[in-house]
Automatic annotation (TrEMBL):
GO BP: polysaccharide biosynthetic process; UDP-glucuronate biosynthetic process
Signal peptide region: none
EC number in record: 1.1.1.22
GO MF annotation: an example: UDP-glucose 6-dehydrogenase activity
Family: Belongs to the UDP-glucose/GDP-mannose dehydrogenase family.
PROSITE patterns: PROKAR_LIPOPROTEIN
Alphabetical list of Pfam families matching this protein: UDPG_MGDP_dh, UDPG_MGDP_dh_C, UDPG_MGDP_dh_N
The organism of origin for this protein: Glaciimonas immobilis
Residue ranges of every copy of the UDP-glucose/GDP-mannose dehydrogenase C-terminal domain listed in the record: 335-447
Alphabetic keyword roster: NAD, Oxidoreductase
Protein name in UniProt: UDP-glucose 6-dehydrogenase
InterPro entries reported in the protein's UniProt record: 6-PGluconate_DH-like_C_sf (IPR008927), NAD(P)-bd_dom_sf (IPR036291), UDP-Glc/GDP-Man (IPR017476), UDP-Glc/GDP-Man_DH_C (IPR014027), UDP-Glc/GDP-Man_DH_C_sf (IPR036220), UDP-Glc/GDP-Man_DH_dimer (IPR014026), UDP-Glc/GDP-Man_DH_N (IPR001732), UDPglc_DH_bac (IPR028357)
Binding residues annotated for substrate, in chain numbering: F166, L167, K168, E169, K225, F270, L271, Y272, A273, G274, G278, K342
Biological or metabolic pathway of the protein: Nucleotide-sugar biosynthesis; UDP-alpha-D-glucuronate biosynthesis; UDP-alpha-D-glucuronate from UDP-alpha-D-glucose: step 1/1
Length: 466
């Protein structure tokens, strides 16, 4: 099938590459000329396991193209996926300017029937706004004498479908190729049935083993994506809040996690306490759902707390360090392992490391950081974070090896649970550090073992009374 993907970020690039891998003829549009140039020269602008091979294989056989040509992108695909960003607006609601610009471009250039698929995470009701934007552009192309009723007969037809994406960064290719579920919201009337038939054909390879597609109305599909992210964020904040209490009462949140996760009604997933969730999705989607509710005069009390708990949790590591070393950290030196918001990605959006770095550098400490893949993205993002206080960055050192970052540090802080940090040679760690102190923001190690081998160890919610 001929497919156009608008936006080649984490979602668009993975969607385009994976659909090409299945035999479709895919045209990827992005307005970022640098990104398109990188892709056309055989590079990949993001770190995502397995993606480079698929992109290069499908580019080589001509099934995957990258371009900035809007008219050509609209002409190419009968199905047009909108996969552009929906960052938070100033008030926390989803900023739809990129989605609506993409929709207007489709309306401006389309000459035949199109299915427009909202793959971006968008608030309930956005499909109607996308339809409206396309209709306005189509109307603008007609001579003024032919008013809106002519639009229905003569203008090219279309249908807007909601198909939210559930992939996880770091496992995006695997998630896309072997999805738990595919959610598609489609109109029952008008051109909806034609859109449904085309989407059925496109996703047929994913449903061979068993049916994974959940068909529903458009608004429910839009809502499903927010509900899923809100639920996952809630589980994390719930555990983080309990972990902070566990620290006070002298219980081990890891033991509690096993104890409750074994109940099948609760399950083991997403119950890890830590130093807060980040990324491009949970923080903004929780906020956007709260904003949607508020615009309908409803307060989502649980989600407000989820957000508040998470914002506080990003300071828990800093607080523990201050408790141990005092509020004035000048002259102190720390090692920081992990910058990305989670392992297997270079994504730094809303990463907890940024909050901890602001705190440590702001209190006068110097910091040596390491991350297996996010170093160059971190340099870019931290330059922006510290644009008003660039002198603080003089006390930040980027290290190519995790052991190098430990040199002469008063303590090690771990923020991202990369595999390479899970079982380091602790003798070596102790040799490099000035003092054997570890603040573990992801509960990678066992407190009792760490104490036994001579480390002063601080986890999250793991202060068991001896
Ligand atoms: P991203 O910021 O990585 O990529 C968006 C891309 O769209 C950029 O390359 C940008 O240049 C391009 N773009 C913007 N306007 C454009 C236009 N009019 N025409 C063509 N290209 C345009 O974003 P992302 O992380 O891929 O997220 C995209 C959407 O998917 C968001 O709504 C996000 O919430 C959702 N989502 C993201 C993830 C994730 O893990 N990143 C998972 C599920 C859903």
């Amino acid at each position: 099938m001929k497919i156009t993907i608008i936006g080649t970020g984490y979602v668009g690039l993975v969607t385009g590459a994976c659909l090409a891998e299945l035999g479709n003829d895919v045209f990827c549009l992005d307005l970022d000329e640098k990104k398109v140039a990188v892709l056309n020269s055989g590079g990949i602008p993001i770190h995502e396991p397995g993606l480079a091979e698929i992109v290069s294989r499908n580019r080589a056989i001509g099934r995957l193209k990258f371009s900035t040509d809007i008219a050509a992108s609209v002409a190419h695909g009968q199905i047009q996926f909108i996969a552009v960003g929906t960052p938070p607006d100033e008030d926390g609601s989803a900023d739809l300017q990129y989605v609506l610009a993409a929709a207007r471009n489709i309306g401006k250039y389309m000459t035949d029937f199109k299915v427009i698929v909202d793959k971006s995470t968008v608030p309930v009701g956005t499909a109607d706004r996308v339809s409206g934007a396309i209709r306005t552009e189509l109307a603008a192309r007609l001579p003024p004498s032919q008013a809106s009723d002519a639009l229905a007969d003569e203008a090219p037809q279309f249908s807007v479908v909601s198909n939210p994406e559930f992939l996880k960064e770091g496992a995006a290719v695997e998630d896309f190729m072997r999805p738990d579920r595919i959610v598609i919201g489609c109109d029952e009337g008008g051109n909806g049935p034609i859109a449904r038939a085309l989407m059925t054909q496109l996703y047929a390879p994913f449903n061979r083993n068993h049916e994974r597609t959940y068909w529903m109305d458009v608004r429910s599909a839009e809502f499903t994506k927010y509900a899923a992210n809100a639920m996952l964020a809630t589980r994390i904040s719930f555990m983080n809040e309990l972990a902070n209490l566990a620290d006070k009462v002298g219980a081990d949140i890891e033991a509690v996690r096993h104890g409750i996760g074994s109940d099948p009604r609760i399950g083991h997933s997403f119950l890890y306490a830590g130093c807060g969730y980040g990324g491009s999705c949970f923080p903004k989607d929780v906020q956007a759902l709260e904003r949607t509710a508020r615009s309908y005069d409803q307060e989502l009390l649980i989600l407000r707390a989820v957000e508040q708990v998470n914002n506080n949790q990003k300071h828990v590591m800093g607080n523990k360090i201050v408790e141990r070393f005092g509020a004035d950290l000048s002259g102190k030196h720390f090692a920081l392992w992990g910058l990305a918001f989670k392992p297997n990605t270079d994504d730094m959006r809303e990463a907890s490391s940024r909050v901890l770095l602001a705190e440590l550098l702001g209190r006068g400490a110097s910091v040596a950081v390491h991350d297996p893949v996010a170093m160059s993205e971190a340099r870019r993002v931290l330059d922006l974070d510290f644009s008003k206080t660039p002198e603080l960055l003089e006390r930040l050192r980027f290290c190519d090896s995790q052991m190098d970052a430990l040199q002469d540090a008063d303590a090690l802080a771990i923020v991202t649970e990369w595999k390479t940090y899970r079982s380091p040679d602790f003798n070596e760690v102790r040799t490099f550090l000035k003092a054997p102190v570890i603040f573990d923001g992801r509960n990678l190690y066992e407190p009792a073992v760490m104490n036994e081998i001579g480390f002063e160890y601080y986890g999250i919610g793991r202060s068991v009374l001896a």
